[in-house]
User: Fold these one by one.
Assistant:
Number 1:
Amino acid sequence: MTNLWQDLRHAGRMMAKSPGFTAVAVVTLALGIGANTAIFSVVNAVLLRPLPYRDPARLAQVFCNELSKGRIFQGVSPPDFRTLRERNRSFDSLSALYGSPINLTGAPEAEQLSGEFVSSEFFSTLGIKPVLGRTFVSDEEQWGSHHVVVISEPFWRSHYGANRNLSQMTLRLNGEQYSVVGVVPAGFQFLDNQQVWMPMAWAPGDVMNSHSNYFLTMIGRLRSGVNPQQAFADLNSIMGGIAERSPENKGIGADLKPLRDAVVGDVRQALLVLLGAVGFVLLIACVNIANLMLARGAGRQKESAIRAALGASRGRLVRQFVSESLLLSVAGGAAGLMVADWSLRLLPLVAKSLPRAHEIRIDCWVVAFTFALSVVTGALFGLAPALQCSAVGLNDSLNESGRTSGAGSRSVKLRSVLVISEVGLSLVLLIGAALMIQSFRRLMQVDAGFDPAHVLTFEIDLPQSVQDGVDPYENGAPPIQLSFFDQLLARTASLPGVEAVGATSGLPLQGENWSKLITFADRPAPASLDQVPSVQYRSVSGDYFRSLGIRLLEGRIFNQGDGRYNPLVAVVNKAAARHFWPNQNPIGKVISMVPPESLLPPGTIPKGYHIPWETVVGIVDNVRYGALSEDAPPEIYASMAQGDTMLTNFVTVRTQGDPIATVPFIRSVLSQINKDLPMTNIHTMDQIRADSVTQPRLESVLFGFFGGLGLVLAALGIYGVISYSTTLRIREIGIRMALGAQRADVLKMILGYGIKLAVVGVGIGLVLSLVLTRFLANLLYGVKAADPLTFAVVAVVLIGVALLAGYIPAGRAMKVDPMVALRYE
């Protein structure tokens, strides 16, 4: 222990004596270790840390699928949930929920809250206990007994001043009075940062409380000793029974996956690839520091020889050099923690959609990872130089003329091997970066089917009471929803600077969220319900197509004459025209968004009700409602005026100037119509388009940064080894020039050595890249993982950088005076 302390003290003095070397080494290591620490912090929070619920390994998400059509639903329908909850034998509890914005009314200014409607066992399934009051009981799932609410602790403190008397707490939500019955702990959230939770209850006749509406997220806690395969069999046995009683469920099955996988989504591969990329950066940094320490060690050959002459064993010398590298790496690790902390502060700006982002922090596990990484890093870059520098020849080292003898030659060979490996690793990083950047560039060039410039969007959520118990078009009057949006769109369109206003049930790039079965009047009905094709569906109003710049390809779009009591019409997109009417003109074709009556169970369609048929009157261009990387599916548009009204709609406003400048005026218009309705989720379409590519942008930026860092480090490595080898060959260069060698010959000799190193490194890197870039295949758009052009261009660029890095020491060598060189030693 005494010897170790002496070694560390000596290492500290040596670092202090060479502040330039120490600074370069620490900064290099801080970048490499800091990048690894930052990415590991994300991986730790998202992938490794257990979910913050009781016994999270037993939690699973249950969802439905229709494998015969290749469809996987993200949830279940309300009737299916209730049957599965009642009859399953595999779960201690099953619960369901769906998210919805909630309007807090009755205050001077309306406020929208983030809320969830949940089943009574939701909190107990997750193992969450309230800090005050209680959660829900089963009776509160009954309509009429559902006016209770559980609130989050931050909301409790901000709106009630942490008052512990719950009996005095009420909230007016969506125009109805609710009593606060409980407060859940701060920090609790499920999939989102909620403020209020309400019982999942359905009004009589609510169409959402029916089969084929797979919008509920269902989570369950597996019973002890029950494995996923047993639960899968149990769930599908129940689903089979449901299909026997409800033919619309024919072909619908159930599946489950660990809740952690459901929460993480599709970011696992991207994070692991990024972790591998920063690992390469650290390896390159280690190689660079090893090269620096070899160069520094060459100047300490005499010191090592004297210590060996005084009785120090080789092991003692190795330990001394390794102590110096460990001290350097620990200092770099400490600086790396600061780099990581700074990087994580920027994370919310660039990774808005990252799951569990609120849990990302530098904790004890991250610190332990950084310390272990620092120790391993110190051993990686310190051991080879230590072995090289401790292998001293006393006669040569103590002889003044021994400076270019065997030790220097061996050092050059080792440094050359290190530079070759550095170039190979850098090429892998650069090819990965080039592929990701090229993929992102092509993604941004995708035609989304609309013009996002100068378009404002916002969300309006009408209270459920608007729809409950109301017969649409009763006595010829339009439903309240339609009347409200007619007023809002008309008044907004009259504002100065507004060119067009529309409304829609779903915005582009926000996900496909509404599908319907489609029936064709001129075709025979399919043999069974599961053979009826489905199509994406959108309900629109006003001047929606013009407000988003959606191109009309043929026919017409909706007009004011398209109402409930006129012939019903529909507009289809180009994908639907090609899919359903190949080599035909769909204009004039008659369709219905209801399955054939012959396939529906008796009593499904009320007596006197006739299936509505709609005539296709127009074809519009494909719009990407899902991700930019996904082709637009067949889509049918219907007019709200024809009966498909929604409680939640998005308004689209095209303006002449800055769309944000119109927000105060639109808010004033909304307040005049209904002061209890907040204007929420205010964005420009430019923002929505930018946010839709947050993950690929982050991946390309990080890969670009890591690739650039690897390129700089590789260039420094090539420069360092050529500069060092040139210094050792000064006398040889002088002799060659004295014997008639030209400066061009010296340049060719020096650069040839650098090019040879680069070419060998590039060859190794190309082989590695062919193997490793296949892990990027699922992250790329419009470019192959083994794109030959990318490989070739990056290889040429790296060789070009090697040429530039070698030219500086080569230029110095060309200016050597032969007489000075001959006296060099």
Note: The chain is about 50% helix and 15% strand.
Number 2:
Amino acid sequence: MAKKKENDQNKLDLKMNIGYVKEVSIVEEMERSYLDYAMSVIVSRALPDVRDGLKPVQRRIVFSMNELGLRHSAAFRKCATIVGRVIGSYHPHGDVAVYDTLVRMAQDWSLRYPVVWGQGNFGSMDGDGAAAYRYTEAKLQKLADDLLVDIDKETVDWRDNYDGRLKEPVVLPSRLPNLLLNGAAGIAVGMATNVPPHNLNELVDAIVYMVDNPEATVDELMEYVKGPDFPTGGAIYGHEDIKNIYSTGRGRVINRGVAEIVESKKGKRQIIISEIPYTVNKAGLVEKIANLVKEKKIVGVSDLRDESDRKDKVRVVVDLKKDAYPNKILNQLYKLTPLQNSFSVNMIALVDDIHPKVLTLPAALQYFIDHREKVVVRRTKYELKKAEERAHILEGLKKALDKIDAVIQTIKKSKDRPDAHKNLKKKFKFSDPQTAAILDMRLQTLAGLERQKIEDELKALLERIKELKEILGSNEKVMQIVKDELLELKDKYGDERRTKVYKNPVGKLDSEELIPNEQVIISLTKGGYIKRLPSHTYKSQRRGGKGVVGMTMKEEDVIEHFVVTYNHDDVLFFTTKGRAFNLKVWEIPLASRQAKGTAVVNLLQLGPDEHVSGIITIADYRRGKYLLMATKRGKIKKTELRFFKKVRKSGLIAIRLNGDDELRWVRMSMGMNEVMMVTKKGQAIRFQEGDVRSMGRTAAGVRGIKLRSGDEVVSMNVLYHPGTILVVTEKGYGKRTALSEYKVQNRGGIGIKTAKVTAKNGGIVDAIIVNGSEDLDLIAISAKGQVIRVSVDSIRTMGRDTQGVIVMRMKKDDKIASLTLLADLGKEVERQRGDHVEKKVEDSQNEDPGEEKEEVPNNPKGKKK
């Protein structure tokens, strides 16, 4: 008996591992324990899920706030409540980690699209911490609704929380591509992730494209996703670096803040920092600059101030000394401070819940597409199940109503509810759910309208069931739903890109990026010499003065074109042979006022006896719709601007010319204005632009004005607003005449007189339309290079049949060769560039069919002068 008890005790001890010793290799045990710990950190803490882009703590915060009813339309609740709910129900870790995560999800300088709406002190870009969670309040942003949408429709899997009392979602349904949208950063064991944020519009366009083209390459996707889009703005450099990141999932990109050199009201030069790189501490940046100035590693700084406002609109002002070199100091700021840094990318996320994987751009997008496809399918199945269950009950109710008397009698004869349930099923073949619904049916259902409601609901449900089955039976319809929902999000939350992307790496910037977009003057002589110089070169003078020397040139040379524009604009050159060439303004060499300039044949491939006869500058090819061209023999032609969007280096044919005719003028128009042509002998004609039909690029045009013997056209203008016409003659006489004195005629006539042409004042040189003369100057250039700038207001308004007043006193054997208008506030630029053309034109009207939409460049003229 004692022996039996001893054996039983030994068995029990063995079962309970009491006194049981097992030899284990310490190396194997350390490996196993370390791997268990590492996987726990990787899966349960540090890495986001590729599907919803959230780490477990972030997902639990969003889910807990949703359970607490803290949607965007609800009232704010103390963050202490949220933190307590998260750690008490789902996240068995410290409250500090949960609150820090909650705070970051509310910071608009940390997340490109914040998920949490914070109220109170949630920190700052200077590195200030948030107030304690007993002081702050929060609720979900509207955007969070689309992370949680359809979570109650069996769209995702659920698992037990840490103590088995509750269920939590494995992943959120997430209509948003949140992994790339807001990015992620985390350090696990043996690996780390650092995914940059992106722009929603670009991601949606790329995903829609990839749904239609599953084998899309990185190059194709980068037509939509230009690069990371940081919440703090700034600029990133290097197309190849970005491509390498998207192709391999790893790499780094140079991120610069935005700084510009300006002149203050007191005449002092300043460097204004308006945007800083992502993750850079603004206070730390200012302190670093101050230390470098103190250590004299940066010389030439007189003062440093942080003028940023409470809403974290960045403005750091660096005042410079008079003898400082601004560009040199700015380069030192980029080199020595965090104003320029590198953002290292390591796109690692969890795939299938537990597998960490490095993701390329196509892979990250495809995983999200697969997730959304599964969510849509599961949601559709759930809705189909619910619809079929409801339809089944409605069919039972309808059948019961059709036999209501028999149903009532059966129920009356039953002794209790279970008996009635059994009798109804047996007699009428109802199912259990149908029978329960019939027994719960109210007497009001017997009314005629109530019966009709049941029939209407049943009919609608049957249609819905049919629709849901069609969706489940067609992958194309499922993917169309995915695309439609994404495009809906784009309309709801989409915004403009904040971070500028430059194709070339730092140190290899595009030439245009190094050149300020300043107002300049382009002058071209009849002898073919062109130059570019700042518009402030010529100072305003009084009418009747002698002017200043405009350039040094040969005696027989004269200035023929004088155009005001901006450095970053395009210049279309039209030649006497009817061809068109294209250059950037900054590609024209900069020269001094007295310099002769560069031979235009070095810039354009001109043929023998071919000269530039027309210049037009374009900031935006979508702004004007047509180009109007006129020849010296009175021909006129209208052609769509889009035909000149891409010009070969060898040029394009702009108009077909006959005989010795030459192309002389080109103007921008909308096709709905009036045209005015003026001849050398003083004739003018005004007609509707609609009289000239739109023609192809190589067409010859139609007659604009009928010329008398020995006469030729000297001016063609498009009339946009009521105003005056400024006429200047060869001998320096000029006048303004109201346009109302010129009646509208049919195209092709001889016109009416616009000036008295005599030997005293000479033939007309040019006629320019003036729409208001306030702050408008006339610059006139003589054949011998004299230049004068006078106010248009100083030139009198007179009748048509007059010779005018002296605008410029001419030397013997000299005559006016060319003239232009210049406005101190850029009005002349708007006149010549066509900015006054109807600005509310739909972009689509002026785009090429099948051509991708171009990004509209920033227009500095929109800034306050």
Note: Residues 361-402 form the longest helix (42 residues).
Number 3:
Amino acid sequence: MREDDQSIRQRVDITRLQNIYRATPGNLVATAVVALAFAGVMATVTSWEPLATWLGVLGVVLVGRAINAYNFRRRSRLPGGRDLSRWWRRHRLGVLATGLVLGCSTLVNFEHVPVAYQIFSIFVLAGLAAGALTVMILDQVSYRLYLSTMMLPAAVVFAWYHDPLHLAISVMILVYVVVLIGTSSQLHRKVLQSLTLGYEKRELAERLKREKERLDSRLGRILNDSSNEIFVVDAQTLRCMQVNQGALEHLGYTEREITRLRLTDIIDDLSDEDLHELIRPLVTGREESVFYHGYHRRRNGERYPVEIRFQYSAQESPPVLVATALDMTERDKVRRQLIHQANFDQLTDLPNRFSMLGRLEQAFHHARRHGTLVALLYLDLDDFKKVNDTLGHAAGDTLLQQAADRLRSVLRDTDTPSRVGGDEFMVMLEGLRRRSQALRVAEKLVAAFERPFIIGPAEIYTGVSIGISLFPEDGHSVEELMQYADIAMYQAKQQGGGQWRSFDHGLLQALEERLEMESALRRAIGNGEMVLHYQPKVDAMSGCIVGAEALLRWESPVFGRVPPDRFIPLAENLGLIGEIGRWVLREACREATKWPTTHDLHVAVNVSPHQFRNGRLVEEVLEALDASGLPPERLELEITESLLLQDSNQALETLEKLRGHGLRLSLDDFGTGYSSLAYLKRFPLQTLKIDRCFIRDMNQDTNAQALVKAIISMARALDLKIVAEGVEDATQLEFLRAHGVRIIQGYFFSPPVSATAFQGLLRRCIDPNRREGRRISSAG
């Protein structure tokens, strides 16, 4: 038990003992009066001699207890320890003796008195027992001794008669004793708890008082050591009566100088009248404290922001005002930084989307009042993802910063550019009178992005697509204008980028069609709407089919046959390209197993960047081969240049695993991206495909011919096979054949055809004399 708990328990015991001895005289008088009355009644039916003897014994006991109580009251100090136990024992012995004498009353001529007087004697004892409950409740031991010795002899005497009436009275006496013991126990616990709680409260109050005194003794030192400025001011004259060291250090005054000043000499831009008005709620008692945000002026004239808390005390004479000032210089600096971070993009320092929304609302309100227009230009950089993928995110960040600078260089000071996320920017033009003014700004912005960006040693060309919407002509809310500008920007990008498009409500229909197409595309694979067509790859010398490229087609029941250049970008945006790519792999391998099983008849499948980046390409390819039973050497994967440059180490590891399983690897569309000879040497490629854009221009452009010949020479030097795609006429075929290109793909031989039609081409091309040769005519 803790020391405090022991102290409280001892104090409770002392209080109990004091109250018991204090109540003893009254208890003794009451007992004596009842005993005399009882004896007088009983003397009418029995002789006086036994009663007199009984009364004499009782008198001796009561006198002894009275002497003990008198001695207790005469003691000079509170009992404690052994002394406390001695007084408890004396009291309990007196109670025990009293109970025994009273209990013996039933033995005095009891058998010679009528039953009514016997019952009367029990009522007297029961009354004494009930009366003693209130007196002896503070000591459960005393009460139980008193009750037992007084009532149990009567129960025994009544039981001795063995007749039903006496037995019933005996049982009732026992029940009465049990009830009184239970009741006394409950009351004793409650009284004890009440006393204990009272002393605990007193102990807590004393402890709090001591703690307050201790804190008060330290308060002066604490306030003086505080870095806050604390002023005690005459509430009427506002003259400084006392200040702490923090105030002197911040303001640069001496204590003597500052006590000559009024508080309003320190608080800048606050007059005496203003201060009195500010603290009026304190004087009237409506408020306990008031705050003021302002500036303090140092002795040298410098100003700095403060937050001041005023408190008023009318207990002093004269009443005082306590002002506690906190220097807000650093907090204001942090607050300004946080506000800037919340409203400006960290990379470009342009207003961000959140800030732009508020500015647009204000601009719309101003336009309504003055009858002007507000233009919203939504800008998206063309091919920005390619820059990130090929040159890295650091180069992408630099490009975004330079793009922001280019926006600022074109716009007026009253125009507001912002970065709303990724490679998307927004420009707000205010105070316009005609739509043509916004269109001219868009033209300047498009022209500004036609110049190359210099990032390190590289020149990067990236245009900008711009969508334009006007308030209030196109819409009346920020949400509408942003949506319409975004729709117009998307249309500009769909038309090839590097241009602007002004919103018109016809674009909404196109957007609804796009959303409908997105919904249909999500269901296309499950509904069996995706099919593969195959375009033959032909040996230019022999005319034999050596393989085919699998090309994805979507035959929608709603939109008809949708070209790949329309739904593939949509699938990439929706995150469906991975699922579609896995289906293409499985379907192409399954179909190729139906072709003649010769070593060189292979199927080529394009691999999307998503499949390459998800890290499961090797696993997906092997699953497709296992499911179909197609030998690995009959599957060729066509890889794009940009895919290899995204993560060259990961790309190299993946390609080496695929090559290790026996697959063919081909580089598709060579020369259309950020071509590099380094990865041609590094990666395990077997084939290089000349893009159709070079083949298409060969008949009219000698430069295109020179580029094709350079690509052929380079491929031969690196021991790579060459495939020319997009061959459409005999002149192109002869040029390629003359320069040693063996594998040709294009409409000159055959367009992409269904799987059934391609098998028909294979059957028609079988040479009856050499079954392993497969020839196809130039007519396709």
Note: Residues 766 and 774 are 5 Å apart (CA to CA).
Number 4:
Amino acid sequence: MAAFVSPVAEPASWAYATVDGVSIPDGLRYSGYRVRGVRATRTPDGDVQLPATGVVRKVVDADGRAFVELQPTPFPIRRVALGLPGGLPTFYLVFDDQTGLTFGDGEADLGGAALRTASAVTILAVRQDRMLVDPAVFAAHLTAAISQGGGDASQWQPFADAITSATATGDAVPVLLYDHAGQPRTAGNVFVVLGPSDAESVHLATLAPQDAGDLQRTVARMNGTDPATMPIATLFGDGRTSFRLRPLADAGDIQLVRIEDAAAQASEITLTPQLRSVAFTNLAGWFAPQFVTLGTGEDLTRFTRGNRFTPFHNGAPFIDDLFERLRDAQRPDGGFHLATGYQLFPQTKFTQRKVGDDRLETMTLAEATALLGSDNIALTLEQAVKLIGDAGGKTRFLNAQFYQFEDPREPTVDELALASLVVMGILWLDGLGVQFARTDFTGVIFLLLIAISASIYTQCILDSNGLPLERNGLAVDVLKVLPGALSIFDPYPVRVEDNMPPPALGEFPFDDIFKVTRHFGLFHQKLSIVKVGADHFGYCGGMDLNPNRLDDVDHMAREPYHDVHARIEGDAVHDLALTFDQRWRRIEADEPPAFDVPPRDGALTPGADIVQVARTYFAPAPGGEDRQLFFAPNGDRTAGDTMLSALREAREYIYLEDQYCVPPRIYRETLVAKVRDREIRQLILSIVGISGDILFGDRVREAFFDDLRTADAGAGIVRIGYPRRRFTSTDNAVRASSGKMLLAEALPAGGGTQACIVLTPDVRIPAVPFWVSVDGELIYAYDETSTTNLPLGAKAFLCERGDATAIAAGGSSPSGAFPRAHQAGAAVTAIDLTGIYVHAKMMIVDDVFLGIGSANLDNRGFFYDGECHCFTIPQSLRLSPTNPAFQMRRKIWAEMVDLPPDMIAPLLTDPLAAGRLFDRSPFAGNRYTPIDARPPHLMLSYTTGDGAIADLIQLLGFTVQANHISALYTTVVDPHSRLEPNPEP
């Protein structure tokens, strides 16, 4: 059976003409697109047939035209499908009426099966990447893919030859211009450059909507109107066999790619009658200019070409890759620079993981040495540093410092408690976990006891500027004594006075509670550089060397964790290395870095990716010159500017993963406007289900989500959710019978919140909150409650039932388990419905732009903390076979919707069609869960935004008012320095 056949029988007997702007009606896969195709006519009528085996649907538009959509089945033609640029096509056969179309929607038939006879049919094809290429170009690509895949092209080739001969030959052969998303360019200016470079003639062409992206039409139109301005009538007339296309822009900013052969060029590209379709984009619209311009040779570049950008999803692949490079760095000219943005674990076993390994195991250097394998890949970071040092190499570590106290005043017990629970809460709760606390008095007392336990260290902490509490104390102490190594703390100098607007320091909470603590910022960058001889490998993203990053795509860790990172090779590594070097020289003047910043080398082209390294640094307040960073004296907002630029460039979809997702105003307004104005077709947010570590920020996040839903207005553009792994048994580390219980009292039918479930025996009951299955009904117990006359050994819990449990997506809103009556003595089993913690800070736009780094989508990430982000666009745009944005999206989405690797190509190549898979029920295997389908979080109180932390402040003796919570949030949790957001260009 042939993979593809001609859509018309006897293709040479038909006449063909190009048609533009055929609008796909609602109800079909590519509805709303205006597609270029061919209209085939014949007298007498001829047979129209299915061009491939697949599923058919029919829609009749307002003009009475019948659109027959054919979705080819990929599995019988897998080799051909994998070789097709842009993925498997969807065909549309458009008839002037629906006469003779007798099939039912959803029926399948074989390629070559007759549909009907007709005197005319319009033939359209849309690739999975949604680039609306010329029909002759598509037909040629399909012919090549059939042959390369080992198929029989004889039943397709005559049709391809016929439409090429009729529509794509001669001096006026179409020359089609596209944007980065593959849509025809209908506005703007380009230069048509004729002749050799030393004797060229340049003609300005102004595109117009009526030209439908065809530069030949533009030239003919302008020549007919004003021959003096456009002296040529056709691009290939007068014996010309080529010309150069030079779009208007600053030199070097334009990136072009020919669609026929995926050849990429900067600034201009040569086109011929055979290579005549080109997509291009202005990189200045994507990559914001570097905010810092010192002019001293210490500035980062706006972007560099010729890099290789390799993204990693989840920690295990990244850590394996890093430790292999560290193995290669075991040489006299080897080196390693690492800046950690949270916590570094030097003695955790990171590598040689296999069945039976304990991923959380720590080991001494002696223990790691005894287990070192023949591959010489270290097991721990400490061992890797030791091996590099023993070989004569050097290593340097910059460790985030959390506590900076003001001398000579002593911190009080209250201040230490709040410094731990509020000041550092956005990170502290992440590491400790938040499910141990409730909003009742017992839970608050528990929090208080944990916090006040720090009081025994009060004087010691003051004397040592907080070092006994520092999370990275072990990393400093263990690594600094190794040969060739230096490991130091790097305090971030920002103070509350640098906020915008500045806080009233004489009011709560500062002079009431934070008498000594005035520093709430952090160097949050997570970057590293490995030097192997003359080669340098840079790493940047959201991951520290932390054991919780060792979770993989299956997410079966005790605390499931999702994060992303990237490896960079090429000139962009210079900017990563310079970022580390500047910080090192600021804090350590006596000892040099392990190696010099590698020079930018124009000949260094390990890959074909355009990369920008972008940063965030605070802007000090007037009078704060002593806090200026010499490498960013007025701050740096490039990371946020580039992300905003990319949002504005989006045409089809935006995919965001973020730990906090409380965007500053201008980002929030941009995203809402993109949805409201229908400038994009899809927005997907993957976030943390319970935002436990952005204290008091839930109301801000919920208001943003409400704005998106209002802007969407039921259009189905917006999806907001969090990943949750499949049901598993609870952790039975304490006793084998944990989670095996009985109903102590009958449970009536009915749903909603504030229901009460009574369980026994108490020794088997998990800590709240927890899920249970009672005779197959899932119920969420979220808080213990006191009731009278409880049976001996029983406990009562407030719970959610029915739709309130929201365990699955149902239609337009989540739906829960069906509530029913249960008798006393019914079996009860605790169920683990753990959310996968999304720590990633990532954005993908239109399968062409990818951003990975440490900057969260909040004020801290874009205007306050020290952050580093890396952004990339492939030089061949969406046509690159190694496109990092495309490859990363498919891997991440396969993880989110839980698809096996073999299903990725056929189901996830088309980003908009694949987005619908996020709506699947978890019972069908989906991990992605609507954000509404999440349990309440009582520690932070989802509904009010105050919760147990506010109760704790009250317990410490301070009256909490609404403006106090607001002050804590805007000056401690999510502060904003004096950097102004990038305005609308």
Note: Residues 423-460, 938-948 have pLDDT under 50 and may be disordered.
